[in-house]
Amino acid sequence: MFEYAPAPESRSVVDLKPSYGLFIDGEFTEGSGGAFKSVNPATEEVLAEVAMADAADVDRAVAAARRAYDQVWSKMPGAERAKYIFRIARIIQERARELAVLESLDNGKPIRESRDVDIPLAAAHFFYYAGWADKLGYANLGPNPQPLGVAGQVIPWNFPLLMLAWKVAPALACGNTVVLKPAETTPLTALLFAEICQQADLPPGVVNIVTGAGATGAAVVSHPGVDKVAFTGSTEVGRMIAKQVAGTSKKVTLELGGKAANLVFDDAPLEQAIEGIVDGIFFNQGHVCCAGSRLLVQESVAEEVVDRLRERMKTLRVGDPLDKNTDIGAINSAEQLARIRTLTEAGEAEGAKRWSPPCELPERGFFFAPTIFTGVSQAHRIAREEIFGPVLSVLTFRTPAEAVEKANNTAYGLSAGVWTDKGSRILWLAQRMRAGVVWANTFNRFDPTSPFGGYKESGYGREGGRHGLEAYLDV
Amino acid sequence: MTAQLALDDAGLRRLLHGLPPVDQVGADARAAKLGTRSIKTTAKARALDLAVRMVDLTTLEGADTPGKVRALCAKGAHPEPDQPDCPSVAAICVYGDMVGTAKEALAGTGVKVAAVATAFPSGRAPLAVKLADTAAAVEAGADEIDMVIDRGAFLAGRYAAVADEIAAVKAACQTGGHDAHLKVILETGELATYDNVMRASWLAMLSGADFIKTSTGKVSPAATLPVTLLMLEAVRDFRAQTGRQVGVKPAGGIRTAKDAIKYLVTVNETAGPDWLDPDWFRFGASSLLNDLLLQRRKLATGVYSGPDYVTVD
């Protein structure tokens, strides 16, 4: 066996401070709600103390955003706004390595993903929306679209900087100012982003970052000075937000959970389909709302696909996120690990067959071996509930119609995948899938030009692409 | 083998076109991802030595002379004369008329002699000429024969003709009590599609190939990582179905140690560690060896020497 020697990325590129404040009106300030600790999920070491924003802090942030909106940002010509956003994009590229290491430290994701996916895509989103800033009138959304005002944004822990980019880039391009709350387990790259805003000479108050837990998020969402709410996270919290803003004039976009079907037909490019299945569910430890967590395989090739998948899974390397050869890093928190365990135990109790490749997990930190369940039926909890971990449920189908029926038989509708060599079948299926994205012969591909969002309990509104502008404009 | 299968062109077409299709975008992406593995320190040292042992050190020039071939043989047997821990290469690969010279120069070293045959590199000659070409190289002592397939016949769908020719050359490798290993060159640059690479791989294996090889080195593109990945998948699946293990040899265009290590990673994670051996994986290359030697020195001493610290051939 060819054992790869450890190839750790250096931590020295990151200058971690012992404590971080809030970023309000262009300055780092103390918070008045106490502090919380951000932990490295791979080692359980405390990385830094971060200020907890209370309602008064949120109030200050919203007031700063309002001032910046009224006095500077909404009045600035689009071409001028674009210069700032381009500058931010370039600084993200320049500081990519620092951001990637910090993201892996704080989140637990493998450095090869933060380095090759998260950070480049985040920069790409800023570049893309910078290009729109002076062309809003040509986006086919109306002749003279106007910004909404102050955007209150709450983002999840699975792609901390990338979700920030998805939210902040279009908001700024459209002329809005923002108050953003990163997830409490992964606030550090957002705070480094605040430094980048300073470095880019972004006018004070255009971007404000308030850290904290659920209460802070609720204060942002319910603040009367917020004109637009954007949330990515769990369906449960999404429901609460929808109730909170109902009856107000706030515009809302919600990007929530998923339980995507990945359909493999018997004429599929099998070897690439196996890669797609692996990318679909084991990318980012399965912490992906559009993860292909339900594999639906045509019965005639089901056995072969599962055998090949097992062989492939034996080559997945689980462990230190900062090792450049790690494929699967740490689960983001003890709480999430417990949830994954509960649901996998439910899978076994309901009679599904569980399998993981032999792999040694580190003793410290939150780790979970890549897992597949075979013999799963639509009625099992593991086929219905979002696990948000490296756990795949394998189901089978016999005909294309049955595949569509099973794929759509879920409360969610964020994404789907189809693997077949037949172009006509791809088009036939794409029309029938109730999902925001349907990937054909690929999975988990993202691009700033492509809209993203859900059906049913996966939320409403679209982010990315020209469609993503509409969420931040009065048209 | 095809006689046992008793398949004509139509039968072979059904068999080969029944293989799972290849999605080019996905195959390229997989190869690129395997290329990002970071091989350091002890793993790198091991990979460099393994790569040296897998090299088929090659000279295939019209201007080849006995002197040039003897120099290459000396280099292949002792790549680093002052470092006895440096392994020998797997084989010296020459044109058929140079086999005798190479065989003599390599006597007692354990380094094999490989000869290209069958009207290499175009393969455009009557079968009788190709077989005579092969027999002459085998008679002269070649341990391995690198043959080219008839790409014209393959692209025209005349699969049985390709299969019969491979089987006939395989038989020629075994005449007169010899048992030369047969490496079948698919010339993947001329096959154009990944589906064709997969089909040609299976056709060669079914017809008795001991090794499948990407290229002659005379056509661009020569070896690429995605094509090698596909061939590794083919040999893995072939062994799973038939129990017979076939080797893989990318050739042409692999010049740096960094590239060679990407290939080794791909072998490791595709076909598996069983193929990480000169018996089952080779590099057809002329300039790769020197970079492997430079990197080997760098790892041992911590500093780069320079091109003058390794021999030119």
Describe the structure in your own words.
The complex is a heterodimer of chains A (475) and B (313). Chain A is an alpha/beta fold and 475 residues long. Helix content of chain A is 39%, strand content 17%. Chain A has helices at residues 55-73, 78-94, 96-107, 111-132, 160-173, 188-199, 214-222, 235-245, 270-282, 299-313, 334-349, 381-384, 400-408, 423-432, 467-470, and strands at residues 19-20, 22-24, 27-29, 35-39, 46-51, 146-147, 150-154, 177-181, 207-209, 228-232, 251-255, 261-264, 294-298, 353-355, 371-374, 391-397, 415-419, 437-440, 459-460, 473-474. The longest helix of chain A has 22 residues, at 111-132. Chain A is globular and about 65 Å long. By secondary structure, chain B is an alpha/beta fold. Helices cover 49% and strands 11% of the residues of chain B. Chain B contains 14 helices and eight strands. Chain B has helices at residues 2-5, 9-17, 24-34, 41-54, 66-77, 99-105, 127-139, 151-155, 159-173, 188-191, 194-206, 225-242, 257-270, 288-301; strands at residues 55-58, 91-95, 112-116, 144-148, 181-185, 211-213, 247-249, 283-285. In chain B, helix 3 (24-34) packs across helix 12, helix 4 runs antiparallel to helix 14 and helix 11 packs parallel to helix 12. Chain B starts with a helix and ends in a 12-residue tail after the last helix. The mean pLDDT of chain B is 96. Chains A and B meet through helix 9 of A and helix 3, helix 4 and helix 13 of B.
Compact overview of the structure:
By secondary structure, chain A is an alpha/beta fold. Chain A has 15 helices and 20 strands.
Derived structural class of chain B:
alpha/beta
End-to-end C-alpha gap of chain A: 61 Å
Order of helices and strands of chain B: HHHHEHEHEHEHHEHHEHEHEH
Distance between the termini of chain B: 40 Å
How many β-strand stretches of chain A? 20
Q: Tally the helices of chain B.
A: 14
How large is the count of helical segments of chain A? 15
The portion of residues forming beta strands of chain B comes to 5-15%
Helix content of chain A: 25-40%
Per DSSP E runs of 2 or more residues, the count of β-strands of chain B stands at: 8
Shape descriptor of chain B:
globular
Helix content of chain B: 40-55%
What summary fits the major beta sheet of chain B? 8 strands, parallel
Contiguous runs where pLDDT drops below 50 for at least 5 residues of chain A: none
Residue stretches of chain B low in confidence (pLDDT < 50, at least 5 long) are: none
Which term fits the overall shape of chain A? globular
- Beta strand % of chain A: 15-25%
Radius of gyration of chain A: 22 Å
Largest sheet of chain A: 7 strands, mixed
